[in-house]
Amino acid sequence: NTTVTNAKKGVKNVIKSFWRKPKESVSSVMSDASRHRNDGNQSNKLASPDSAKYRYDSIESQTRLLADTLFLMRDYDAALGIYRLVKDDYKHDKAHLYYASVQEMIVLCMFMIDPSKYTYDVQHSIETALYSYSRAADEEKDDTNPGVRPSKAPYATRLATRLCLALSSARTICDGKHMEMADLLASASSHETPLGAAVLLERSSSHYYQAGMIRKYSFHMLMAGHMFRSAGQDRHAFRCFAASLYVYHGERWGELRSHLHSALAAQLFGMSRFALALQFYAKLIGSAGGGRVSVRSQQKFLNHLVEICRDEKAEALIAVDRMGYNPGNGQGNLTQLNNDLQQIEISNVGFPDVEDSSVRIFADNSDKASVLLGRADSIAANAMGSSGTGDESVWQDMIICAESELRASSISSSVDANGASEEESSNPNAAHSGNEMIDRIISEIDKEEREAEYRERQKRKGSARTVEVRATSEPVTVSFTVTNPLGLDIKLTEMQLVASLSCPNSGSLHSNEFTISDEQYDPSTPKVWKFHGSDKEFESPDFMHQGSIDADGSRVALVDKYNPYFVVTKKTVKMTPSSSTVVSLEICPLSKGDLEVIGVRFKLLGEVWIYHRFDLPGPLLQDTQLNRSKRVRGESMLLKSKIEEEMPSLKVTITPSNKNQSTVLQGQTSSWTLKLSNYGYAPAANIMLKTNAPWLNINDETGEEKDENSATSHCVGPSGTLMKVPFEGTNKAGILQPGETIEVPVFIRTSGGGRQDFYILCRYELWNEDSQTKLASPRHRWARKLLSIPVYPSITMSASLMPSYVNNGEHILSV
Predict the structure, then answer these.
(1) Distance of alpha carbon 405 from its chain centroid, rounded?
(2) DSSP assignment letter at 645
(3) What is the dihedral of CA 694, 684, 711, 390, to 10 degrees?
(4) What is the pLDDT of residues 371-392, one digit of tens each?
(5) Which one, 59, 257, 510, 742, has the greatest CB density within 10 A?
(6) Which helix (H) or strand (E) is 192 found in, with range?
(7) How far is CA 661 from CA 668, 698, 796, in A?
(8) Cα(590)–Cα(569) distance, rounded to whole angstroms?
(9) What φ, ψ does residue 475 adopt, rounded to 5°?
(10) What confidence score (pLDDT) does residue 374 get?
């Protein structure tokens, strides 16, 4: 105490300290000491007399010894004063380690006296101590490998870590200052080893969380996980990654969420936790953020996913079950099956991205127009047409007019010649044009339009939703848009539709929704189906199984591959990075019942099955005010169909008889050939043609004499645009058998100028023996054909005769 008092205290000593010369820089001494500590030669550790900067008899050492003695004697006020005397000497000498140690003791003294009294001074001394420790660590750092964390932390770094952990556990200091404490812990981790940095970062994240900084908490917890992984602490790394993942569930953090999924997947894969790793890899390949990582990482995701599914089947099945595969109406169907029959299929991953809003369904007849089955039940099929499909309103008006003329003609033929029909007598407001047939047709057209308006209103309300009615053995095409979210080329093999068909007659249901298969089936020799009007080859779908319609789904049996209820086409699709393509797949029902297209499945890299279930929103319900206000949607009927009996399917073509004819002139009558081909599986009868203009004339080759009131061109009704097609079938007149083609010569006289759209609507009925005996009208269909014909102006000739003004008695003829 006397020595310190004589050397440090008093005004004289304070003034002398202003001109005190700094001692030799401590940096060289500390570096020499560090080299001696790391040297393997024990004699070198004791040989250097300069390893200690301040000898025990120096005034600095004596002052520090006095301050430490007073601290041990619990005289904290006196110790605080002595520490403050010596700290400036260490600062001038740039002895950062000594200076930081003194600052740390000053904090302890003020904390023991009264922390609330020295609030600012405590915080300032803590920051000064950590800063000095970091400068001392920089001087001790080995610069041979810059940017690489040391395997052993410098002595000053370990002292800084000890101080940070001690301060973090002191509630009195941390209360209300979590933000400052978190920043100190994070900064102290920069010089630590991976394990030490992980501990400090995890501790700082907890302070950020208590300070309400959720994003900084997640970020530092993520960095702690990376440090734990570098240190070989896999379980601690997984714990940190999982803790930070909870914050990034929102839509705004797609890239960070993908980064966390990538880190977790790699961590779990290395820990042999394959079930959880598969879940994260499935999310990575299906996320939009997957395209923002490197192509090498994306390829690693796919390789690890395939490797787990191939080598770890039990773990993969557990992961698939956890990922929430929830079939529509078959929960529990797989519970009674042997795991050897169940195949691995990953669902609900969004890879590739199938746009449900782009799903379209239409009948596959190698063309793109449409055919109607009945008046109210429409079916998408096609008859040969031009590049355009025409105006839908024109087609609907032609259908209404054709039906009205046919019914009016039928009523007219059944009315007694001397009496009026019951319908006319009960309708006093019917139009009276002076022609009974025209009045009857106008009444039928009004009736058809009222029915069409009523059906449209019911459809808007959502109370009249009906499924499409389709025919057996007629392929149906489903098209949709597929997007590759990854940055590498992918190949999707065996892409096929997933569907179910229930047959009420047999009481069974065939479906390929569940991934069960019989390994004894030989896929090298599959049975191939081909159908009329389609050049595609159909096969039995994979995983076809059979269940009961009325059962609860607990019993499922495999189906013979050669006798399914429906067959599908299989495609291979190659996609470039970040590309989109439209995929068209076909399905053909072979039995009557209720068909529903559920989704699509394919193989990834030829090994792993991926399944996507279509999710289509239904129409908005407008039947009640509550449904309108809440925008309630009904059930979508787009992918549902009712499969009826086999039907005929006509393909209509019309070509000029003269192949050299290249132009059509106004008023020109030219010879054409109407060609009708039945691509269906049932005979067609009562074939009618309806046109939008009276251009068409069917030649009457019967040779019968007719009076002037008889209909020409086989017309039905007074419009002259509805005609019955006369032909001689193979087995019976007026019946077109399946696979049969007829050619009917017709004449077309064009009118107007420019490009004219000539609409041809073909109506035909299903013919069978029962339809001839039943009173109800047989099922019928419509086929459309649109001709877009350029009509060129022709030369017209006219003559006029005028008297000559020059020579009397002569006339001038003008042509």
Answers:
(1) 49
(2) S
(3) -10
(4) 333 333 333 333 323 334 778 8
(5) 510
(6) none
(7) 12, 20, 21
(8) 14
(9) -60, 145
(10) 37
